[in-house]
Structure formats: C-alpha cells, structure tokens
Specification:
single chain, mainly beta, 11 strands, 113 residues, 4-stranded antiparallel beta sheet
Length: 113
Amino acid sequence: VQLQESGPGLVKPSQTLSLSCTVSGATITATYTGWSWIRQPPGKGLEWMGAILWTGTTFYSPSLKSRTSISRDTSKNQFTLQLSSVTPEDTAMYYCSLWGEFWGKGTLVTVSS
C-alpha cells in the first residue's frame, strides 16, 4: 500500500489548508480500512487529526474538530484534509496513513504571510 500527500506547501494565516492523499495498492472503500491524517509540528510529537473509515464515517480530534474536515473521492481513490483558519502554529509535516501501519512520506506545510 502506498500513500502520497499533495497540496500547497505555503498557506497564509486565516486561510484554509487543503491536502489530498492518493492511495495505491488498496481501495479506500475496502472493508475495515481507516484513513487518517496526522501531523508533526517542528520539534514536537505526532498529533492525530482525524480519520475517515471505509463507510465514509469521519472522526476528529476534539482539539481540532471545529476546524477540520476530512472527505473522500472514491473515483480517484483519494481522501482529503481541510483545516480552516490556520495560524503559524499549524505549521507541520502532514502525513496520511492507513490505520497507522502504512504512511505517506509527508508534506511540509508552512503557515506564513
């Protein structure tokens, strides 16, 4: 299973961060699969942001729930992350993952004007 994150590397404060994760070697609608977004700010630990299950059900970290949306495009075998009202504190490496077992290489997103 391979996952590849894509999206802009620079986002301005107050804007919405949007990232996509393209999956190969597995289908995002396959039974019992769960697809997560995880981030790691510079010098800090990993933070689970949320996930979308094979059913389309979503779960979010309580601390980010008000700003986070995860959706999917089954025709492209992709799932996406949107994080609204970003601040410089949202600067991080963003990873997509299948149940924490398979990971993308990550993409650095910097929030700066």
